[in-house]
Amino acid sequence: MSYHVPTPGFDFQQAGKEVLRIEREGLEQLDQYINDDFTRACEMIFACQGKVVVMGMGKSGHIGKKMAATFASTGTPAFFVHPGEASHGDLGMVGANDVVIAISNSGESNEILALIPVLKRLKVRLICMTSRAESAMGRVADVHLSVKVPLEACPLGLAPTSSTTATLVMGDALAVALLKARGFTVEDFALSHPGGALGRKLLLHVSDIMHSGDEIPHVTRDASLRDALLEITRKNLGMTVIVDDLMKIEGIFTDGDLRRVFDMGVHFQTASIAEVMTPGGIRVRPNMLAVDALNLMQNKNITALLVADDDRLLGVVHMHDMLRAGVV
Q1: What does the longest C-alpha to C-alpha distance in the chain come to?
Q2: How far apart are the C-alpha atoms of 244 and 220, rounded to whole Å?
Q3: What CATH superfamily classification does 206-325 receive?
Q4: pLDDT in tens, 104-148
Q5: Is 304 left (phi over 0), alpha (psi -120 to 50) or beta?
Q6: Which CATH class is domain 13-184?
Q7: What is the rounded distance in angstroms from the CA atom of residue 234 to the CA atom of residue 37?
Q8: Which of the ends of the chain has fewer CB neighbours closer than 10 A, N or C?
Q9: What is the pLDDT of residues 203-251, one digit of tens each?
Q10: Cα distance between residue 169 and residue 156, in whole Å
């Protein structure tokens, strides 16, 4: 392979912009293929009792892997099977209740064509995505989705560029249309992303991270201010809750309140906590999403919330707990 020095003054930016222009025009052409065939494909996948199996060779295979991943994360169970491996045993992953999406720009992929007789024998429904409805794959498909583009962005017309972009977008169109049809929610999305930031935000509740039992800083209203400060120090949450003998919330006292007390000239050795506490306290229920509790803290400019069932104290959640849980 030979390499050449770029022509002096070669405009890389212009070359890049030309690629974007060609691919944009290709996507504009794709709009015409969101038609009755697209509806039939969506209905077939929606009614599927098994899984969606995506197949493709080369660059189409790379697009197929992403397509399967998008389906799987948006409520349509799916996985990718390499056509070459399918010919050597992996076709056993495909069942009669599945739908196969086979991708090939030319529609003449030998590896996929070799599998089609077996798929037909298994009565597997077949959606083919190609640029030519009259291709071998297009003719045998139960549904053919065209992804034809006027021009590849590659100046040689060889490297799949505009065509792979169009195929990727068509896959996204299928996945999102099905997502909407299923009524798929943000919470559903989080269930398939438990390890990510979104999963932590949407699956984690206040009850999962709050301090409870002996970890709760609390004193009764007859405690002295000194006793309250000792409790704040022991529990290390920068606050204490004032409760009665049944853990009914009466008030709250924080580090910020302590600065206010000093400004007032209160003698902390003799003062009662009932004299200086803030009555009530902002509280949330244990089933509140942690991210919602975080938003409340930020809106109120506070670092801790009381977790309660009506007036009965169940726990305390601190901003530091949000940080440790990765909610922030």
Answers
A1: 93
A2: 6
A3: CBS-domain (3.10.580.10)
A4: 999 999 999 999 999 999 999 999 999 999 999 999 999 999 999
A5: beta
A6: alpha beta
A7: 68
A8: N
A9: 788 999 999 999 999 999 999 998 999 999 999 999 999 999 999 999 9
A10: 23
